[in-house]
Amino acid sequence: MIVDTSSIAGYTIFREEASDAAPDLSKARSVHPLDQLSIEEIRAAAHLIRQHADPKVVKFNCLTLHEPRKLEYAAFRAGRGPRPDRRAFAIVLEKGTSDVAEVVVNLTKLKVENWKPVADVAPTLTLEDLDVCERVAIADPRVIEACREIGITDMAKVFIDAWAIGFDNRWGMERRLQQGIVYYRNSPNDNQYAHPLDFSVVVDTEREEVLAVDIRHVDGKRVPVPLREHNYLPEFVADTFVHDKLKPIDITQPQGVSFSMNGSELSWAGYKMHIGFNYREGIVISDVSMYDHVEQRDRALFNRISV
């Protein structure tokens, strides 16, 4: 497995090699049923899904914990039921198409439990998907020509913000679409949002193809690039920035913090909860209780809450 820290700034990507064997989960330690999937569990789930899909090649849109059912988890917590099986949930696309399926993998039994094709949907765009839009668009002859017509010949100064548009009457649900909003940078750290260009692109994410270059004419003419700079980084405003506008704030806890962590379980001021996270909701707080000093027992507050 290759550890990649350079492809996407701020992220660590664990890339599997073709020679990597499927992980052995038989010796994995028991974890809290609501804990997020480990790297090895993610690899194992991906391996099982690829095997199930073969000979088709799939692309992963997401792969995350499939939480145990409420009653199943409650019985386990109360000591009335077995530990729930570990499961993973994935959204996958058949590579090169917009065909989508939702998959549930049982990691305890090492098998795909459910594979459900889903029609007329457009899964969320990933960071890799967003990269496709810019990479494909700035190399497209129609985009290069659209830039040349307004005086831009250096495509290294052209940048594209990709956005999901989901549906466009021109292609319906047959394509997984992105719309790219195009900007110009006069220097590497220039604020590109001061220089929007007068056109956008529509890209098929899966086929990596520019479908349209939509130019907005005003009175039948192209709109010149707004070149006035609006930059706020220190290198641009060092001579005018006032450093002593705000007085310092010091926040200290001389006796240490008031909370404690046991794995992903947090205890604080009589409250207990499990802290989780997923790609769609962000932070998920589960199994929330507080200690009742009158009745001298833990009182359940919430089974699961998220934003």
From TrEMBL:
Swiss-Prot/TrEMBL GO biological process terms: amine metabolic process
Species in which this protein is naturally found: Verticillium longisporum (Verticillium dahliae var. longisporum)
Keyword annotations from UniProtKB, A to Z: Copper, Manganese, Metal-binding, Oxidoreductase, TPQ
Molecular functions per Gene Ontology: copper ion binding; primary methylamine oxidase activity; quinone binding
SUPFAM superfamilies, per database record: Amine oxidase catalytic domain, Amine oxidase N-terminal region
Superkingdom assignment: Eukaryota
A Pfam family annotated for this UniProt entry: Cu_amine_oxid
Entry protein name: Amine oxidase
Catalytic activity annotation: a primary methyl amine + O2 + H2O = an aldehyde + H2O2 + NH4(+)
Processing and modification events after translation: Topaquinone (TPQ) is generated by copper-dependent autoxidation of a specific tyrosyl residue.
EC number(s) reported in the record: 1.4.3.-
All copies of domain Copper amine oxidase N2-terminal, residue ranges: 32-117
Residue ranges of domain Copper amine oxidase catalytic in the record: 250-307
Cofactor, how bound (note): Contains 1 topaquinone per subunit.
Record's subunit section: Homodimer.
Listed cofactors: Mn(2+); Cu cation; Zn(2+)
Cross-referenced InterPro entries: Cu_amine_oxidase, Cu_amine_oxidase_C, Cu_amine_oxidase_C_sf, Cu_amine_oxidase_N-reg, Cu_amine_oxidase_N2, Cu_amine_oxidase_N3
Copper amine oxidase N3-terminal domain mapped to chain residues: 123-218
Recorded family membership: Belongs to the copper/topaquinone oxidase family.
